[in-house]
Amino acid sequence: MFKKRINVSFAAYVAILPMALTVLLAYLGTMLWTARVSVSSSRTFPASDFVGASQYVRLFNNERWLLSLQNVALYGVLFIALCLLIGFLLAVFIDQKVMAEGALRTVFLYPYAMSFVATGLIWQWILNPELGIQEVLHKMGWANAQFDWIVDQDMAIYTIVIATVWQASGLVMALMLSGLRGVDEEIWKAARIDGIPRWRVYCSIVLPMLGASVSTAFVLLFVMVVKVFDAVVAMTQGGPGTASEVPAKFIMDYLFGRANIGLASAASIVLLLTVLAIVAPLYFVRNRRAAMGA
């Protein structure tokens, strides 16, 4: 019996070995290599010298990088807020045990199964002034109607928000719905007896109980914000001009287009630290609450 347990444990370790090597080499290894390159004078090819924080100084003196940070901050606030709001409302709607619930869940979640490239192309066509909504409005008789945000420098970033919120809200809906289905039915019975409005129950009782679902959704959405790239390239190519430039596109352009891997690596490390600064405290708080609950 003891020998059998040893064999099972050994088999489990062997099975997990490829994934462990992938994490150590492909993920941790590349992160360390990127950090090393970011403190060198590397341009087209990696250099082995050490120049300290000069690449980071150059990075934060780059107007295009600063613009990309402003854009992703605006995009992130709107994207996360709208996804959480719409996802929660969709979850509440489905939680009312509506007809064809399974079909509705599939419809709302289906956009998330699409790639961001496909989403970007679809919304590029919808928002194209010569093909999409604006042209439809013109044909319906509103000749002066305008909806040309995708070619407007001041509004282009909002078109990225519209497209990606449409895609990601279904994911939030699924997470919120799983949390709502865990709410004790006795709470609703007590609320009905006390005459408490349904919206008040959701705001004061149910939402605080969905802390785990909300924090999970927030982390997933935040990671999407940091690495948003495909939808931007598919819809606007970062334009008009650099109006919808985002950090991930800045990194890819400097890594492949301008052959400056030192600056691109510094930008990558900044994004990594940004993610860690948000995710690590949430992870710590959740683990601490779990330990206190145990």
Automatic annotation (TrEMBL):
Gene3D superfamilies from the entry?
MetI-like
Which GO cellular component terms are attached?
A: plasma membrane
CDD domains, per the entry: TM_PBP2
Which Pfam families does the UniProt entry name for this protein? BPD_transp_1
Tell me which UniProt keywords the record has, alphabetically.
Answer: Cell membrane, Membrane, Transmembrane, Transmembrane helix, Transport
Residues in ABC transmembrane type-1 domain copies: 69-282
Enumerate the subcellular locations listed in this protein's record, separating them with semicolons: Cell membrane
Q: Which InterPro entries match?
A: ABC_transporter_permease, MetI-like, MetI-like_sf
Out of the domains of life, which is the source? Bacteria
One biological process GO term for this chain? Answer: transmembrane transport
How does the protein associate with the membrane? Answer: Multi-pass membrane protein
Task: List the SUPFAM superfamilies.
Answer: MetI-like (SSF161098)
Transmembrane stretches, start-end: 12-33, 72-94, 106-126, 156-180, 201-226, 261-285
**Which family, according to UniProt?**
Belongs to the binding-protein-dependent transport system permease family.
State the protein's name: Carbohydrate ABC transporter membrane protein 1, CUT1 family
Q: What is the lineage of its organism?
A: Bacteria, Pseudomonadati, Pseudomonadota, Betaproteobacteria, Burkholderiales
